[in-house]
TrEMBL record:
It comes from Paracoccus gahaiensis. Residues 54-416 form the AMP-dependent synthetase/ligase domain. This is Feruloyl-CoA synthase. One of its GO terms (molecular function) is CoA-ligase activity. It holds the Pfam family AMP-binding. Transmembrane segments: none annotated. It comes from the Bacteria.
Length: 596
C-alpha cells in the first residue's frame, strides 16, 4: 500500500467502532463520599466458561481457537471442535489422579496450547488451576514456588519444559509432575461438570508478592463470566465479527490469563500466542508474528508500543498489516507518554486515513480483572474511564485524594485459606479496597471519566509532610523527557526534594546522539538537564517538581522483582533493592543531575 497523503492525526476522523454509551448514576453522601455506577443493568452472564466453548464448538467447530509457533516455525493450530473434545478427557484424567479444589493443578509453563488445555480441562472438571511464573521457580532456590505450593497444596504440577520439571521435582517433593497432557475416557467428569455453578472456583491467581508472600486470589466461574459480560457491553464491536488476538502477556497475570484468554473463548475469537516480549532481545519475535497475523484488538505496555512504533515507522508494509483490521489499541502496565500516543495515531492515519480507538482502564487481580474502562475518543493518554455495568464505585475522600473501592459480581470472594487477609481487603459495606486513588477529568461531570491518581501504597511524603502522587507524576516526567527514558522510579520519602532514577531508552538516545553515546556523555547530560528544567518550570509546588535525576546504569533485574512479567517497572522493588543508589541520588553523588 502506498503512503497516503499527509494528514494531521489530531484532526483525522476516528475509525468507526461500536462501543458503549454509558449512563451514570451518581450519589454524594454528606461526608463527600461518591457512589457511582452505570444506570443500566449488566446482561446475565454465562454459567461458566465451558458453556461458551460448547457454543462455539457447535456453531463454528472448524474455527481456529488458538495457534502457537511450532519448533519448525510454522503455526500449530487447534480448533473449537477439537478443544471441546479434549476438555472432558483431560478433566477425567485429573480427577483420576485425585485432583480437587483442595488439591488443585499448579501450572509451571509459558503460554501455549498445552498450558491452555490443562487449565481449561481442569476447569471443566471443577479442579482449580494456578499458573505460576516460570521465573518464580528459578528465584532463591524456588522459595516463592514453595510458598505458593504451601498455600494451595497442589495435587499435581504441569511442567512440559524438562528444566522446569526438574526444578519442580526438587522443590515440591512428593507432588507428581506431568510433562505431557493426560487423557482418559470420560466418566464421572460429566456429572462433576454438570454440578458447576458461578460459585465454583475456576483458578487461583497470585499477586506479585513483592512486599511479602504471594497471595492466592480466588477466581470463580461467576467472576470470569461477569467480566466477559461487562466486556461485551463495553467493546461491542467484538460481537460483530470473531476477534483476532496476537498476545504475548503472561497468563499468570490476570489481564492476559483471565481477560484476553477468555475474550477469545467468549466471542469465538482466535488467540495467537506471541512468544515475543517488549524487550530488546524478544521484540523481534513479536514483529515477526505481527507481519503474519493482523489483530483486531491489541494490547501492549507503553514500552512495547514504543518498540513497535520504531519498527513500523521504518516499514510501511508492517504498519499497513498491523492496522488493516484493528479496531482498538489497549495499553496498561504503566502510564503512556503523549509522544507514544501521537506516534501510534500518526501511523494509524498513514495506514488507514483515520485514527484508531485507544483506551486503557483500571483493574486488579481481585477484580477479575475488568472493572473500569475507557473507550471514549480522547486526545491523549491518562483517562481510565468509567465503571463497567454491574460495578459500583465508591470514592472516599482520604488525605486530599479520592480512594477507590469497588463492588460487583467481578470481585473476588477473597484470598484462599486467608480469612484475616480477606477481611482486611473489604470495608464495612463490602467494597473491595483496591489501594488506588482517582480524580475526575471534570469535577462537574463524572461521565468524562477518571484519571489514576497514584497507588496509596506507592505515594510518599516529603519531609515537609507534602504528599507526592507517584503514578501521575511518574507518567508526566517520562512524557516530558521526550523519549530519553523508558520509565522512572521516583524517590524522596522524608527528603526535601523529589528525585528520579531513570531507565534509559538506549535506542532513542542512540538515534539522537549517535551509537557511540554513553550515559555519561556530556551532550546527554545537557539534554537531560534542559528537559528536566523545562518540566520543573511547570510544577505547581514541591509535590510536582522533580529536581534530581540519574540514570540507572545497571539494568533492572526481573529475577529480583524489579520488572514484572508484563514488562512494567516495580517501583517498590527497585527502591528496596537499590537503597544505596537512592542515597547517592539525594546526597548529590557522581552522575546526579541536580536543579537549583
Amino acid at each position: 500500500m502506498k503512503d497516503r497523503e499527509p494528514t494531521d492525526a489530531a484532526t483525522a476522523p476516528l475509525r468507526k467502532v461500536a462501543v458503549w454509551t454509558p449512563h451514570l448514576r451518581v450519589r454524594t453522601r454528606p461526608d463527600g463520599t461518591q457512589i457511582i455506577a452505570q444506570a443500566d443493568p449488566l446482561a446475565p452472564p454465562a454459567r461458566h466458561m465451558s458453556d461458551r466453548i460448547a457454543h462455539w464448538a457447535e456453531a463454528a467447530p472448524d474455527r481456529i481457537w488458538m495457534a502457537e509457533r511450532a519448533a519448525g516455525g510454522d503455526w500449530h493450530r487447534l480448533r473449537y471442535g477439537e478443544l471441546a473434545d479434549l476438555l472432558p478427557r483431560i478433566g477425567q484424567a485429573l480427577l483420576d489422579r485425585g485432583l480437587s479444589v483442595d488439591r488443585p493443578l499448579l501450572i509451571l509453563a509459558e503460554n501455549g496450547i498445552g498450558h491452555a488445555l490443562m487449565a481449561l480441562g481442569a476447569q471443566h472438571a471443577g479442579v482449580p488451576s494456578a499458573a505460576v511464573s516460570p521465573a518464580y521457580a528459578r528465584l532463591a532456590e524456588g522459595a516463592k514456588l514453595r510458598q505458593i505450593a504451601g498455600q494451595i497444596t497442589p495435587g499435581a504440577v504441569f511442567a512440559p519444559d524438562p528444566d522446569l520439571a526438574g526444578i519442580a521435582r526438587g522443590v515440591l517433593a512428593g507432588v507428581p509432575v506431568l510433562a505431557a497432557l493426560p487423557e482418559a475416557a470420560p466418566g464421572r467428569v460429566h456429572q462433576v461438570h454438570a454440578a458447576l455453578t458461578g460459585d465454583s472456583i475456576a483458578k487461583f491467581m497470585f499477586t506479585s508478592g513483592t512486599t511479602g508472600a504471594p497471595k492466592a486470589v480466588i477466581q470463580t466461574q461467576g467472576m470470569l463470566c461477569a467480566n466477559q459480560a461487562m466486556i461485551a457491553d463495553c467493546y461491542r464491536f467484538l460481537t460483530e465479527e470473531p476477534p483476532v488476538f496476537v498476545d504475548w502477556a503472561p497468563w499468570n497475570h490476570v489481564a492476559a490469563g483471565s481477560k484476553v484468554f477468555n475474550m477469545a473463548l467468549h466471542f469465538g475469537g482466535s488467540y495467537h500466542v506471541d512468544a515475543g516480549k517488549p524487550t530488546p532481545r524478544h521484540m523481534a519475535e513479536t514483529i515477526r508474528n505481527l507481519r503474519e497475523i493482523a489483530p483486531s484488538w491489541y494490547f501492549n505496555v507503553p514500552i512495547g508500543y514504543d518498540a513497535l512504533c520504531d519498527a513500523m515507522e521504518g516499514d510501511a508494509a508492517l504498519r499497513d498489516q498491523f492496522f488493516s483490521r484493528l479496531r482498538m489499541l489497549m495499553y496498561a502496565g504503566a502510564g503512556m507518554a503523549q509522544r507514544t500516543w501521537d506516534r501510534l495515531q500518526a501511523l494509524s492515519v498513514a495506514a488507514t486515513g483515520a485514527r484508531t480507538l485507544m483506551g486503557s482502564g483500571l483493574s486488579a487481580t481481585e477484580t477479575g480483572p475488568f472493572a473500569l474502562a475507557a473507550v471514549a475518543d480522547v486526545a491523549g493518554p491518562g483517562n481510565i474511564g468509567l465503571p463497567a455495568r454491574g460495578v459500583t464505585m465508591k470514592l472516599v475522600p482520604q488525605a486530599g485524594k479520592l480512594e477507590l473501592r469497588l463492588k460487583g459480581p467481578n470481585i473476588t470472594p477473597g484470598y484462599w485459606r486467608e480469612p484475616e487477609l480477606t477481611a482486611a481487603a473489604f470495608d464495612d459495606e463490602g467494597f473491595y479496597c483496591i489501594g488506588d486513588a482517582l480524580r475526575p477529568v471534570d469535577a462537574d461531570d463524572p461521565a468524562q471519566g477518571f484519571v489514576f491518581d497514584g497507588r496509596t501504597a506507592e505515594n510518599f511524603k516529603l519531609d515537609t509532610g507534602t504528599w507526592v502522587a507517584v503514578g501521575a507524576l511518574r507518567a508526566a516526567l517520562v512524557d516530558a523527557l521526550g523519549g530519553l527514558a523508558q520509565d522512572a522510579v521516583l524517590t524522596g520519602e522524608n527528603q526535601p526534594r523529589i528525585g528520579a532514577l531513570l531507565v534509559p531508552a538506549t535506542a532513542r538516545i542512540a538515534a539522537l546522539l549517535g551509537p557511540e553515546a554513553t550515559l555519561d556523555d556530556p551532550r546527554l547530560t545537557a539534554l537531560l538537564r534542559d528537559r528536566l528544567s523545562d518540566f520543573a518550570t511547570r510544577a505547581t509546588g514541591s509535590s510536582t517538581r522533580v529536581s534530581l535525576a540519574m540514570w540507572l546504569i545497571d539494568p533492572l533485574d526481573p529475577a529480583a522483582g524489579e520488572v514484572t512479567d508484563k514488562g512494567s517497572v516495580n517501583q517498590r522493588a527497585v527502591l528496596a533493592n537499590r537503597q544505596a543508589l537512592v542515597a547517592r541520588l539525594h546526597s548529590g553523588g557522581p552522575g546526579v543531575v541536580a536543579l537549583s
